[in-house]
Design a protein that fits this description.
Pathway: One-carbon metabolism; tetrahydrofolate interconversion. It is built from three helices and three strands; from the N terminus they run αβαβαβ. It has 81 residues and is of the alpha/beta class. Strands 1-2-3 form a three-stranded parallel beta sheet, covered by helices on one side. Strand 1, helix 2 and strand 2 form a beta-alpha-beta unit.
Length: 81
């Protein structure tokens, strides 16, 4: 089976996984996001990024997810419809 992500593989293998949740920063500066989630990189298997929490303007959850992927952190993208 081809795995969609590391999280997908761990779940299918029956491993217990750790996830964390954060909101994208108010800033569009990726360094603000990376500083915020740096401590989660070696603890969480994936980080859930909420979309438009509190209906306030934040960095796009999709943009934040791309930044996490580029920095070796698996995102769980949450979209509000």
């Amino acid at each position: 089976m081809e795995y969609q992500s590391i999280l997908h593989k761990k779940l299918l293998d029956g491993n217990f996984v750790y996830t964390a949740e954060t909101t994208p920063p108010d800033s569009s500066d990726q360094e603000v996001l990376l500083k915020k989630i740096k401590s989660l990189k070696n603890v969480a298997d994936a980080v859930n990024l909420t979309d438009s929490p509190g209906a306030k303007v934040h960095m796009s959850a999709l943009t934040a997810a791309i930044i996490l992927i580029q920095n070796g952190i698996e995102p769980i993208l949450q979209l509000t419809v």
